[in-house]
Amino acid sequence: MYPQLLAHIRRYVDLTSDEEKSLCEKMELLKLKKKTFLLEPGKLCKGNYFVLTGLVRQYIITKKLSEQIIAFGLESWWIADQESLFNKQPATCYIQTLEPSEVLFLNESNREILFKEIPKLEKYFRLMMQKSFVAMQRRVGFMLNQNDEERYHFFAKAYPDFMQRVPQYMLASYLGFTPQFLSRLRAKKT
Amino acid sequence: MYPQLLAHIRRYVDLTSDEEKSLCEKMELLKLKKKTFLLEPGKLCKGNYFVLTGLVRQYIITKKLSEQIIAFGLESWWIADQESLFNKQPATCYIQTLEPSEVLFLNESNREILFKEIPKLEKYFRLMMQKSFVAMQRRVGFMLNQNDEERYHFFAKAYPDFMQRVPQYMLASYLGFTPQFLSRLRAKKT
Fold this sequence. Notes:
Chain A has helices at 3-10, 17-26, 82-87, 108-117, 120-145, 148-158, 160-165, 168-175, 179-189; strands at 28-32, 37-39, 47-53, 56-61, 67-73, 78-79, 94-97, 101-107. Chain A is of the alpha+beta class. A four-stranded antiparallel β-sheet of chain A has the order 1-8-3-6.
């Protein structure tokens, strides 16, 4: 059983103990070293990953051959290439651990079985998608409406622990500016 | 009954004729003039809108007091302020018709009733959210990985009809550049 996953689900829907058991049996526990790839471009994304411990990043390689971070996965976050999953097409991004991590993998065909057995899980995953969509839409809003410095300060205030945990150059990539610019911003504060 | 909505749902889940009837009874048909506001900042977004005919835009006013378009709603697209809906907090955006439009409104409390009566609709709305998330994530990818000209050409190729229908300055706003830049791009082509 995976109490952390069950606690997360319980925030949105109630499962019976049989349903909890059935769900946990479908999850695959992955114990991963730092820098392990869960997904690479060209491969099919086969399901969703739930981060138990550690830290995961999702990124693309831009045409300028630099890494561009699309999303991070922290404890109790789901991560996947939703486009690859939805359209059953090859992934366009990497998903990689940044720290030694424990991750639960839910294969898409197992998820379909679970949806039939436990229809309430549709609601849970609908709400997870809605939450992810809101986060992504806010990001678009920030990119269009905030300059680099404002974006940095907003993020630093909203996610202080996260700012400490993620390597500087990755944070810069996520926020969409150069590591040099980030260093200058940090220097200003001290 | 609203055959256009039912045809859209049928692409994802099968409903019985009783379920279809029950669903349609919960929808409210709005016949709207051009430039009607469906939502304004500060008000609570009370549900989801399904566009039958016409065209709708979702936009914010930036700190520089210009309009920034977040999304468009075309025929058979759903549109709402998901953040306002999800967190039950005041909306931060406008939703407004750009053409005379017919729109179906599904109040959130009616949607909750429908989810209890017809659990299959959870799947439908989960897939709609996943689709919207994918579109929004692609948009972030484009913003980070394409210059203005590439973004324009991608969009022109992917959505030719749409490009014709939307006023120039709104298209520029959506793509994140100035109307002047868009005029120069178009002039280049002829």
